[in-house]
Amino acid sequence: MILGVCLLGSTLTSCALPTVISNYVDSIGSEAGNKKIEYTDEAKKSGFTLEQPTTGVVVGKEEVLIQGSLAEAKAGDQILVRISKDGKSGQKIISIKDKKFRQAVPLYYGKGKHEVEVLIPGDSKTDYYYSATRFTVENSSSLQQIPMGYNSSFYRQYGVTLEQPIAGGKTYDGKVLLQGTVDPPSKSTKQVEYLVVRADKGEDKSNYYIPVKDRKFSQWIPLRFGAGDYKVQLTVGDLHYSPVVDLEVKNSVSADLRDLLPGSGMESDDPQIIALSKKITANENSPMEKARAIYKHVATNVSYDMKKDRNYWDDGALKTLRERKGICHDYALTTVALLRAIEIPARYIGGDAGEPHAWVEAKIGDKWIPMDPTWGSGYSAGKKFVKAYDPSYFNPNPASFKKTHKKPEVIY
Length: 412
Description:
16% of the residues lie in helices and 39% in strands. The protein has helices at residues 41-46, 152-157, 271-280, 287-301, 317-323, 328-341, 398-404; strands spanning 5-8, 11-13, 38-39, 48-52, 57-60, 63-70, 78-85, 88-95, 100-106, 112-121, 128-139, 149-150, 160-164, 171-172, 175-182, 194-200, 207-211, 216-222, 228-236, 245-251, 303-304, 325-326, 346-352, 356-364, 367-371, 378-381, 384-387, 406-411. Strands 1, 2, 3, 5, 7, 8, 10 and 11 form an eight-stranded mixed sheet that branches. Strands 12, 14, 16, 17, 19 and 20 form a six-stranded mixed sheet that branches.
């Protein structure tokens, strides 16, 4: 006998609704491996079919593939999967597309038997689910995984499917791949252009933008703050501070590479950026002179865009070098990218210079030196920008610089 359950927010709970009783109607074989998949009455009525797995007892390693169809599925419907072992339970959301579903489900709790229950949406109540079937998976892996957190409403509204990773708790070698699809079920929902990712380690925080192209996304996210535990949050661009899904991961790389790894708009690993940085600094010998050459290149080759009044999610070094214009944000992104490309530690500084402003710091030896390629590029005369290279804003006098550039914040 199976009870109906409802999904409240991001947590699957029992709820104070009338009990729904669904009897399993298929017979069960007696031998492991030959045990038949059993379905509830609700599953039968809804046209639920499970194609994978094919038997009620299967063997898996860290995960198991669930694939099937739901004939009565509506746009935006989701399958809920509950995975349990030894009194512990986690869940996984699987999106339904064209009445079909297919996704790997994690076996969270290490080696041994996991009980897997598949739940389908009710036909009349939002976030109310009925048990459809259940089966057992013998996990051969001892890996302990952590269930991801979901905001089920946003996940459904924007049609998000995070295909990789499928669970939290895994250890990565310096970066983690986020991959999936974004396909809103309603035509009234604006198509998503980008996702925002936060990858935070304690008080250290970093933000990244992932483009969504043809309803798909795939990008490696750096774990830039060294070894330890990270919280990764994936957010639809329009929502910003309301994560759609979050997970915990571990980084095995001990080195803290926060000022050397690529960042959003700071594409220091791009072949074009690397080649340009090497070309700019080819005749320079010391890190200080290489940094000065990069500062001069950005200041003289980029013009201030008097018409641009804010930052955009797709801003970056490649875009700025292509368009040869931008605001302080773009100057700073480009300079940082070129410095990091030749392994000079660099950081983007956000602060105030009479109005919100951005500049750069580079680590030369054991000292951080400031530079402001925007102010070094020229000046405004009314509504016009006048190109006039000024070398004095590279490694300026600290006391003088602090009078005009205040409230600094390192942004990753």
